[in-house]
Amino acid sequence: MSRLLVLSAAALTVAVGLGVRALFDGPVSKYAGDALYTVLLYTLVLLILPRVRPWVAAGTAAGASWLIELAQLGEIPAVLRPLLGSTFNPPDLFWYAVGAAAAWAAHTLWLRRTG
C-alpha cells in the first residue's frame, strides 16, 4: 500500500471526524470520534510499517487506544489531555474495537481488490 494512499486515508479520517463533530452532538459524535481515533492510529501504523498485516495493524491500533483509555484511570498531564483525554469511560473500549475492526475490514478488502 502506497504511503500517499495511507496519508489520504488518514486525512479522510480526520475530515470525517471533524464532519461528524460539526453535524452531530452527544453520543453519536463521541463514539464515532472514538472509533475514528482508532482508525487514525491504524493509518499511522501503516505509515510506519507499510507491509504490516491488517490484523496486526488492527491489534496495534486497538491496543494503543485501550492503553491510552486505561491511562486515564490515572492522571494525564494537562498538556496531553486534548490529545489523550482525561476521563476513563468504559464504553470507549468497545468503540475502539469497532474502529479497529472497520479499518481491518477496509484494508483487507482493499488488498483483495488490488492484489
Describe the structure.
With 115 residues, the protein is mainly alpha-helical. It has one domain (3-114). The protein is built from 5 helices and no strands. It has helices at 3-23, 26-48, 54-71, 81-84, 90-114. Helix 2 (26-48) crosses helix 3, helix 2 (26-48) crosses helix 5 and helix 3 runs antiparallel to helix 5 (90-114). It is globular, with a radius of gyration of 14 Å. The mean pLDDT is 95. It holds the Pfam family DUF2809.
Fill in the keyword field for this structure.
single chain; 115 residues; mainly alpha; 79% helix; globular; membrane; transmembrane helix; transmembrane; DUF2809; DUF2809 domain-containing protein
* Helix residue percentage: over 70%
Topology, number of strands: 0
pLDDT below 50 for ≥5 consecutive residues: which ranges? none
- The chain-level structural class is mainly alpha
Give the CA-CA distance, first to last residue.
10 Å
H and E string:
HHHHH
Rounded radius of gyration (Å):
14 Å
Shape: globular
By oligomeric state, this entry counts as single chain
The biggest sheet, with number of strands, parallel, antiparallel or mixed sense and barrel status, is:
none
Give the tally of structural domains.
1
Helical run tally: 5
Strand content: under 5%
Average pLDDT works out at: 95
Compose a concise summary of this entry:
The chain is mostly helical. It has helices at about 5-25, 25-50, 55-70, 80-85, 90-115. The chain has one domain.
How are the secondary structure elements laid out?
Blueprint: H1 3-23, H2 26-48, H3 54-71, H4 81-84, H5 90-114
